[in-house]
Known about the structure:
elongated; 12 strands; mainly beta; four-stranded antiparallel beta sheet; six-stranded mixed beta sheet
Amino acid sequence: MQYGKNIRRATMAMAAMSAALVVTACQPGGDESGAESPSQTPTTASATPTPGAPSAKPSEAGTPKSSPTSTSGGSGSSGKTPKTCAVTALNASAYQAADRPDGTGTGAAVVEFTNTSAQACVLQGHPSVAGAGNGSPQHNRPLAVTPTGTASPVTVAPGAKAWVKLTFVQVQGEADGYCQSGAKPVVYPTMVIGLPGSGLHQVALKDGQFAECDDKVTVTAVSAAKPS
């Protein structure tokens, strides 16, 4: 009998030990290999950005970017604005204008400037005018200039031309003629024409000399259109 009671006690003790082991295995901190990971709530791409990905700024999001507006100064394909024509880049000549005041003097003359350089350049403004002898531009007599028209930049391509027109107080009468003001007519073999930034240019008429009265002249601004 005593032997049978001992067997029952041993059996009950083993059963209690097994139950304790089962309870221990179900507690946190048990064997990690047998524990299940807690489930995670799925993330929504529109609500939570992917870690490390840059987010758009409020001013950029959904707004198309526009290209900056560029301005041009009439500079050509190179984007560079041509420089003022140097005195050495120009060849100047003069001839009597077809449209001139009635009389026997020169009346009016057209001065033509040709760009002889390999680069486009700019002429602008009203000319200065002085009467001079042949080959002595430094010994000249400035004329009183009355400018007409608006002075705008004129870009002159290589080989191209620009013009100014000079209208003098006309000489009247035959032979030596006379001036309506009572002054004596003046004859100049050449004229010295100055352009702003482009130096002085001595020109002679292709068809005579410059005969005028009162040492006064009305001038146009440099033009890309050939005057008559």
